[in-house]
Each structure stands twice: as C-alpha cells, then as structure tokens.
Write a structure and sequence with these properties.
With 407 residues, the chain is mainly beta. It has helices spanning 7-23, 149-152, 166-170; strands at residues 33-34, 40-45, 48-53, 59-72, 91-104, 110-117, 122-133, 136-144, 174-185, 191-199, 215-222, 243-255, 259-261, 264-266, 279-292, 295-308, 313-326, 339-349, 358-369, 375-388, 391-406.
Length: 407
C-alpha cells in the first residue's frame, strides 16, 4: 500500500525548509535565532533544523538525507544462481532520499518521529514514544523492530555500503504495534536492556491482519562492560572505555509472508503461496558487539523455521555474519584520520538439511568521514560465492561507491 502526502503538507515543508535555509545562510550551525514573537527558537544541530519553544515543552527536528550510489556489474545482492548471469550492467542512482521529522510535544518525555522515503513515496516510520523513565518506556506506531542490530542501524550509519546477505532472509523489518522497553542498570556488569512487542505482523503499511494471530517479539541484551554499544556502525568517537553487548532476540508470526522489507510483506524464493495464515515463522538470533579506541566488532548468528500450514512442509534456515572496522590512524602514523577500514564475512544456508547449499559474502570497505556518518564517502568491493549440490559453484565480484549526506 502506498501513502500519499497531501500537496498542502508538501508545500508547507518546502516553505519551512527554504525559510530556515535562508535564515542561516550567514550563520554558523551553532547560532540560535529568535523568532519575531520571541517565544520560539530555530537552530541547527546534528539532528537537523530544530524549531522549539522557549519553555522547552515543544520541539520539532527536521532533517533530510540523500544517498547516491554507483555499482558495477549490478547493485542487488544475488538471490539465486540466475542472478549471476546479469553481468556487464552499471548503475548510478539515488538510492535513498529521506525526510525525517521528530521531537517532543507537551513534555520532553512525550516524543514522536516520522520518516518518509521521497524517491519511492513510502511512509516508513510513524511512532509515539513515552520515555519518562530509563527502565520503563513505551512505543506505539510503525518502526523497524529491534530484532537484528544490522537492520536496526540506520542505512546512513553503516560501515558498509549496505546490509549483508542475511538481511533479506532474516530481517523482521518495519511492523506496526506496541512495545515496552528500557534499560536496567544495577551498576557495573549488571546492566541490561530489554524490548518486548506485540505487532500486527503484516509488514510496513499494513491496514489489517490476515487472521487473529499476532507477531510476538522479544530481545534481551546484556551490557557486560556496564555501557551500551550504540546502534551505529564503527567507533567514530574513539571510545576510551570499552563497551560490549551480548543479546538474544526471538520472534514468531503466522501470516502469508516468509520475509519482510521496506516494501512490506513478501516471500523468499521457493515460497509461492499467499494464503492467509499459510506460513508460521519462528526465528531467533544471538548477537555480539564491541567498541574500543576506534575498533568495532559485531556478529549475528541466526536460525529460522518456516512451516507451510497448507502443504505441511517445514524448512530451517541458518546464517551468520562477522563485521569488524578500525580507524587505523590510532596505530599507523601515515593513516589518514578520517579513513576507516571495515570487513564483513557472511554465510547463509537456505536449507540446513542440505549442508552443501551455501551462499557466502566477503566484503572490504573504506569510509572517508567528512563529518562523521552525516557526510561520508564509502567504497566497497564484495565477492559473492554460491554453492549447491546439484549446480556448479558460481561467483561474482561487485564494486560500489556511495556518497551519503544529511542536513
């Protein structure tokens, strides 16, 4: 389902953006300008343009992000062996163009957030959060479920050009529902985060459920060094104290779908049925992450069970990835300070009963940070290798270059 934004709303945002831009043409980002009524303020920070009242009870953050990408021989990750035949293609495109609006109303702890994909006319996020206490928060609306670290991290905060082979098969992506979450800090190693949600389970943009069954999600995270690892790629702040996490997450759902994406519900290759309640999906993942002095590390280990309630066929999928990055100027004097090197290795098994059926990804990336993740240039070289017991091994080498800028 596509959402259409009223023309008046689009014009309002355009006028607001042009007005803000002209007001700050001769001012620095930290300059604060008082409005004529002397009751509201405008300024610009890393969160974008901010409009807020003097008493601090109302605040609106408006930001935009543009992602330009060049890829050869193609941009999409291979799904089947047939995709390796699509050689000699080159593409330059606007991969993402986002408008983000967030802030709080009435009280600083009553927050809201919207995100819209301009290039595809998709309303991605819309949610309201009550975050008055660190240990007990509430959320309602549509958002990316915190099932996997790789998917939950914004596409603008990643170390690689895009997410790994695992994302298509294991992400829960955006869902609609309610959630309770928080941080339980008992001091030292007794530091934990939790998330628990009840969701419709039909993906982004759903307006109804196919049956009376809901999607249930839970995640428990141990911050074993007493500090959380932010949902962001790399360690750009050069942490002087180490931070690490171990997390486990699980989700169960019955629907016509075996996968989810930004487009909504869909099906993996080999699952062609679209009947209501046809597939019962149960999956879990174990995750680790660590940052210290410019070094970063993250892993995910996945298992997914798909049961076809109509044909009574059961399939188990598995996979894992390992990602590591380093701002090498910490150790090498000749290494430029804004340059990060990162690597990723991922393996997916579409059917665990067939051991020789493997899909592998090995990627090397370099990030040049002009202004952190807000303005960076990423270059990436990736090798895909697919293996099947009945087909010869096939592989592909892909190069991508991407500019990401937020304002």
């Amino acid at each position: 389902m596509r959402y259409r934004i009223p023309l008046k709303l689009v014009l309002l945002f355009c006028i607001l953006f042009i007005g803000v831009k002209s007001s700050f043409a001769q001012e620095s980002d930290s300059t604060q300008v008082k409005a004529e009524k002397k009751e509201t303020f405008l300024n610009h920070t890393s969160k974008g343009f901010i409009l807020k009242t003097e008493d601090g009870k109302y605040e609106m953050q408006i930001a935009a992000r543009l992602q330009l990408r060049f890829a050869v021989p193609d941009d999409q990750d291979p799904i089947t062996f047939a995709d390796f035949r699509n050689q000699d293609q080159r593409i330059f495109k606007i991969n993402r163009a986002r408008l983000k609006i967030g802030g709080h109303a009435y009280q600083p702890w009553l927050k809201y957030y919207f995100e819209y994909e301009l290039s595809r006319s998709l309303l991605l996020d819309y949610r309201v959060m009550i975050e008055k206490w660190p240990w007990l928060n509430f959320k309602a609306g549509q958002w990316k479920v915190e099932f996997t670290r790789e998917r939950f991290i914004s596409s603008g905060d990643q170390q690689m050009v895009d997410r790994s082979l695992l994302n298509r098969k294991f992400t829960v992506d955006r869902q609609q529902g309610v959630e309770v979450y928080g941080n339980l800090d008992g001091g030292g190693i007794a530091n934990f985060n939790y998330w628990a949600a009840v969701l419709t389970g039909m993906g982004r943009g759903a307006t109804q459920n196919d049956d009376n069954k809901m999607m249930y999600f839970g995640r428990f995270q141990w911050n074993f060094l007493g500090r959380e690892v932010p949902f962001s790629g790399g360690d750009l702040k050069i942490s002087q104290k180490p931070a690490g996490i171990i997390a486990i997450a699980a989700v169960t759902n019955t629907s016509p779908y075996t996968r989810f994406s930004t487009s909504g519900g869909g099906n993996l290759a080999g699952y062609e049925g679209t009947n209501d309640g046809q597939y019962t999906v149960k999956q879990y993942q174990i995750e680790t992450a660590f940052i210290y002095k410019g070094f970063s590390w993250s892993t995910e280990f996945h298992r997914k069970n798909i049961y076809d309630n109509f044909d009574e066929i059961e399939t188990n999928l598995g996979g894992y990835y390992v990602t590591a990055g380093y701002l090498a100027h910490q150790a090498l004097e000749f290494w430029p300070e804004p340059l990060e090197i990162a690597m990723r290795y991922a393996v997916v098994n579409p059917d665990l009963d067939i051991l020789s059926n493997k899909q592998r990804e090995l990627a090397l990336a370099f990030n040049w940070f002009f202004s952190g993740h807000k303005n960076k240039l990423t270059t990436e070289l990736t090798r895909f290798t697919f293996q099947d017991k009945e087909l010869p091994q096939d592989d592909e080498l892909r190069f991508r270059l991407q500019l990401d800028i937020s304002f």
